[in-house]
Design goal:
Two copies of one chain form a homodimer. The first copy, chain A, is an all-alpha fold. Chain A contains ten helices and three strands. Chain A binds a DNA duplex (30 and 30 nucleotides) through helix 3.
Chain lengths: ~230, ~230
DNA sequence: GCTAGTGATCTGTGATCACAGCTCCGCAGA
DNA sequence: TCTGCGGAGCTGTGATCACAGATCACTAGC
């Protein structure tokens, strides 16, 4: 054992493999909606685009498949799953339940610094939505930042990972719709729910925070479903 | 289109790769506690044991690593993570929240056939626990069957997948403890909570079902933590 | 004109090889 | 007794090759 006990405080530095990088690259494509439901993916083409061999891409894709974010058809084609309306509704209900719960916990246990981070994220999203020419991609990212600032305050790391996976799964559908109908941003639904959530978190009111988050998700889901872009199962 | 319309009723037969099989084999080792926290794993040795090349094992391991069920140390060693007491408590709290919620939904929406399945699973576990010489491994499996019979009745497929992942993560710790202290089975804690949950599901009482499941998880967790087998973080 | 067949090409899956880096063990030096 | 130093034997990671099976454009036959 070294006598320099300060070394014990050093964080374990984690190894970054090419597969990790490939995973993030693909996840970003999905979360930002640049890969939309039904899109196909080729290992070799993706590998060429990333400048690596197929191996790292393979590993990344197999993780995404395990998460249900991608799927490989019996025909050996990798593609973004096309969800039925029922699938999407079940996913939304799961999100409402889990993210609502995370928001409730966040409201009850948030620290001052976490509250500050949430306030800042809310303001950033509000500013973007209120701007003369809102940038969809930027708004999506800021919305995500706000939600995860809230979930980060819930104090349960496993819960945050679960939510991140759910977002990855819902990402393609949500972003596809947002691209087709960017005007929803102006309606201010999300803004109202965000304000409600922020107020509830400030007041340490768990149930109200949960209700606000759930309403945010429900309204976005209903909007998308009302468009009829998803087929029935 | 073929004129034999019956063909439309055929189910999509899903491809089973060696990687899938390897994943299940490893997951079973973890869920049943034959791999315990701290155990190391070698790709080549695992591959040899399974009679395949390293490739399928690699893919399976990378999925388990993504799930947090295995980890690769910076030293390039694959092992079952050793959770701190805090980690385990956070995992348990997450489980209580999520599985409680699933149980509540199950109570409210269960069909008669689902209720029958739950009754049968509860009786099977009770019979095993009451037997003269309870088989730990068998009891663990029956306990799992009962829990998942309940969650299957919640009607949300994404939620079930999430719970399955959480169980895989908690499996090694729980089973390790159960092997060391099989006497807990006789105390009947689990039996009481199971009976409460079953009664609540029969009565379609969501909150009580959630409370019973949460209590089941909490008691098992407290028992394990009281043993002091987990180091602090 | 439409269907069935055919071959070139591309797909994911699996096996194998190459390699940098770690562990372990014995040995030499203080 | 402890420390430092190699070298052999591992490790996971990545690249490459082999292969069965699918796709797609195209043609022959009705």
């Amino acid at each position: 054992m070294s006598s320099i006990s300060v070394l014990a405080e050093l964080p374990q530095l984690k190894r970054r493999t090419l597969a990790d990088t490939a995973y993030e690259a693909l996840a970003d494509l999905l979360a930002s909606g640049r890969l939309t439901p039904g899109d196909r993916l080729s290992l070799r083409q993706s590998a060429a685009a990333l400048g690596v061999s197929v191996m790292p891409v393979r590993e990344a894709v197999s993780r995404l498949v395990a998460d249900g974010v991608l799927e490989v058809a019996p025909t050996r084609a990798i593609r973004v799953p096309v969800m039925t309306a029922q699938d999407f509704r079940a996913l939304a209900e799961t999100r409402m339940a889990i993210e609502g719960m995370a928001a409730a916990r966040a409201a009850e246990r948030r620290s001052e610094s976490e509250l500050t981070a949430i306030r800042r994220a809310e303001a950033a999203f509000r500013a973007e939505a209120a701007s003369a020419q809102p940038d969809s991609a930027r708004a999506v990212r800021l919305n995500r930042d706000l939600h995860f600032a809230i979930y980060a305050a819930c104090g349960l790391a496993p819960l945050q990972e679960i939510i991140a996976r759910l977002w990855l799964k819902a990402g393609p559908v949500i972003n596809l719709d947002l691209r087709a109908h960017p005007e929803r941003l102006r309606h201010g639904y999300a803004l109202r729910r965000h304000a409600e959530a922020l107020a509830a978190i400030e007041a340490r009111d768990g149930p109200v925070a949960a209700a606000a988050l759930a309403a945010d998700i429900r309204e976005a889901t209903d909007f998308i479903l009302s468009r009829g872009g998803l087929r029935d199962g």
